[in-house]
Amino acid sequence: MPFWDKHIETLPRDELEALQVKRLKDTVARCRKSIFYRNRLKDVDESRFTTPEDVSLIPFTTKDDLRANYDFGLVTVPRVEIVRMHSSSGTTGKATVIFHTRKDIEIWADLVARCIVMTGAGKADVFQNIISYGMFTGGLGFHYGAEKVGMLTIPSGVGNTKRQIQLMKDFNTTVFHATPSYILYVSEVMVQEGFDPKEFDLRIGFVGAEPHSEQTRQRIEDTFDISAFNSYGMSELNGPGVAFECEEKAGMHLWEDSYLLEVVDPATGEKLSPGEEGELVITTLNREAMPILRYRTGDLARVIDDGEKCPCGRTHVRISRIKGRCDDMLIVKGVNFYPSQIEDVLMSFPEVATNYQVIVERVGSLDSLTVRVELHPKMFDGDLRKLRKLEADITKSIQDEIVVSPKVEFHEPGSLPRSEGKAVRVVDKRGKI
Ligand code: AMP
Ligand code: ZN
Fold first, then answer.
1. Which atom of ligand 1 is nearest to the CA of 207?
2. Which ligand 1 atom is nearest residue 235's CA?
3. In a domain, 316, yes or no
4. Are 335 and 248 in a shared domain?
């Protein structure tokens, strides 16, 4: 079983927790150098911390705090020490910016290298980084990690799909990194161009940056005949390299020497018991330029609490697939659900192609839910009975999952809007309530 840093990845729990306490104290002390935390931490006495749970004595940090302290409000080092800036890909409000020192970049690359090697990928692989470069962290974050591992790294970015395919062919790409929605689109273009997605040398895919279901992962694996691994991170916490699946694929290991995890009730902020689903709250433990304490990620997941040590030997906690963001939750006709639940159902139908869209509207005083689905071209052969049956089956399965009965609309492949970055799946036309 390959490791990038076996010592730290398999550190016994008591040693890992002792390291967390030490790094937490150092981080709090460092944070006092920033304009924002100087005030925020007035009532905190980190010298008394004895366990990682003492983190709960620190106030939360929210995205609004980051926005309000734009630009350098959380920075703890002189400007000359900063070598990189990134930004979150949020589309609303002011962007949040994150700064790194040279050491921060090295530690981040090391975390990504751990993730890459954990999947069985290595320096003999050709790695195509099919994700946006620039301010978004997925591009450069993975790029530095992959080079550190020693892979031949192709910074192909997103878009120009035919060229992506050509690069895969010409340079025998074996490993890719992409959003699940874009890589499925690549598979469709491969078919249009007369290729079989299985005929390439691909063997491993890193997929992340957006919520996706287990069914979607399976579809990616079957389509390309590869092994696909879930990759979780966010710019505020560096970017990719926060949590990642090992070969067991039984949750994502979150690197606890660099990140301290809590799971809280998103409404009250109360700590939840192990195994309960809630909002991930994460503290950076190993960052110089811009450490962040108890960051409310907005992402919903749970700790895998099966009482078992992961067979891979790593001791770091595992978290479930991300269900969505707290603010993704839809309330339609008074019923709460997440778009990922609809995706789960859709991807279990082989007739369904890779793209879909959920529309919520108010007609009169009533909410209506429409699910637009692209079908495989072979479904449009004039057999209406077959289509009606499929429509009834999908409607029923969605209703069984989320209680609300949707209107299901079929569309030809390529006809629904598609984004090259993170997919926009839901259009809520109701306005703010
Ligand atoms: P950004 O800071 O722009 O990289 O966006 C980070 C956000 O993307 C996270 O807070 C999550 O909401 C989402 N995200 C990243 N990776 C995943 C993943 N593997 N599964 C689900 N959502 C993800
Ligand atoms: Zn494992």
1. 19
2. 2
3. yes
4. no
pLDDT on residue 432: 57
Reported as a pLDDT band with limits 50, 70 and 90, residue 155 is: very high
Q: Which residue has the tokens 């009730």?
A: 265
289 touches 72 (CB < 8 A) = no
Number of domains in the chain: 2
pTM of the model: 0.93
- Return d(Cα 62, Cα 362) in angstroms, integer: 32
Q: Which numbered ligand comes closest to the C-alpha of 10? A: 2
Inform me whether the pLDDT recorded for 133 exceeds 70.
yes
Residue 230 CA to ligand 2 centre (angstroms)? 13
Q: Does the pLDDT of residue 419 top 90, yes or no?
A: no
Residues 171 and 207 in one domain: yes
Dist. CA 248 → ligand 2 center (Å)? 6
Q: What is the rounded average pLDDT of the residues 384-412?
A: 96
Q: What is residue 228's three-state secondary structure?
A: strand
Judged against a pLDDT cut of 70, whether residue 221 lies above it is answered with yes
Distance CA 97, CA 3 (A): 32
* Mutation choice for ligand 1 from 232, 254, 277, 422, CB with most ligand atoms inside 8 A: 232
pLDDT beyond 70 at 93: no
Instruction: Give the whole-angstrom CA distance, residue 114 versus residue 118.
Output: 6
**Distance from the CA of 17 to the center of ligand 2, in angstroms?**
18
Q: Which domain holds residue 157?
A: 1-327
- Point out the ligand nearest to the CA of residue 300: 1
